[in-house]
Amino acid sequence: MQRRTVRTDDDVQLQIVEFGGSGAPILLLHGLMGRATTWWPVARWLVAHGRVLAPDARGHGRSQARGPWTTDRLVADVETVLEPLGPATVIGHSMGGLHALVLAARRPDLVRALIVEDIAVDFTDRSAADARAWFTALPQPFASLAHVREVFGVPRREFGDYMSECVEERADGYHLLAEVEHAVAIAAEWAQITHWAVLPQVRCPALLVEAEESVAPPGHMAEMARRMPDARHVRVPGTGHLVHAAAPETYRRHVEAFLSAVSRTPPPR
User: Mind listing the pLDDT tens digit for each residue in 155-203?
Assistant: First the structure.
């Protein structure tokens, strides 16, 4: 695993993690408050299918933190990462899934295929104030990594393990790498803007993976798939928001079957 930086058009440095593999690129996009290395368990088997890499989104992991904290700006960052590489399979979880969808609609030349995990394109029934209250209630600094796992691992343990990747140790304890105010600003936009309109513009093959205990309203992801020209939808029993962590073998089976089918189709021109 190697790390490098990419500079965006507004002079923000993004850290890129290269997991290995060769051939066509596979780009992994993490969720809100996450970082590239949270994809490591998935990347270990994905390297058999291509060159696997993942950016830390601005304000996350080791990427530089500077706004604006908008979907448009964060998607433009992903464009910067992909433009030198050419068409890629883009896999996104949660926030990363939204960015992958918008990218595929905006830049079909850069996205050969799309896999999105447990997202919604409409959170306008939710409140930015609720997001702020949840984030600001987090007991930073955390006393230990076990404390991080305890706080985030209720009701699902895998989320505690995931978030233990997203902190750093300082003199007074463990702190989230992403600033709460930045995460709140990102989530606040989701409460104001919908992205239903991008779905018909996503022309590449797409796989939509939904958790049984999804962050999306019931039927939402199935409706997303119906509005896309070439999409299939699967719902994975017994899972929460982190499907790839809660049911890794089932997630892998769906993804590898999809990648096998995509490999038999020509890339976009």
Answer: 899 999 999 999 999 999 999 999 999 999 999 999 999 999 999 999 9
Q: Which of 96, 187, 172 is nearest to 133 (CA)?
A: 187
Question: How is residue 20 written in tokens?
Answer: 């290995």
CA 18 vs CA 1, 54, 80, 197: distances in Å? 6, 7, 16, 33
Q: Answer whether 223's CB lies under 8 Å from 74's CB.
A: no
- What gap in Å lies between CA 70 and CA 75, rounded to an integer? 9
Query: Read out DSSP for 85-132?
Result: T-SEEEEEETHHHHHHHHHHHH-TTTEEEEEEES--S--TTS-HHHHH
Backbone angles phi, psi at 236, to 5 degrees: -100, 115
| Whole-number Å distance between alpha carbons of 189 and 223 | 22
Residue count of the chain: 269
- pLDDT, one tens digit per residue, over 75-121 is 999 999 999 998 999 999 999 999 999 999 999 999 999 999 999 99
Other Cβ atoms within 10 Å of 197 Cβ, number? 10
Question: pLDDT tier at 267 (50, 70, 90 boundaries)?
Answer: low
Of the CA atoms within 13 Å of residue 73, those in its CB half-sphere come to 16
CA distance 23 to 215: 34
Burial class for 211, CB neighbours closer than 10 Å (0-12, 13-18, 19+): buried
75: helix, strand or coil: helix
Phi-psi region at 132: left, alpha or beta (left = phi > 0; alpha = psi -120 to 50)? alpha
Q: How far is CA 48 from CA 23, 110, 133, 195, in A?
A: 10, 21, 42, 33
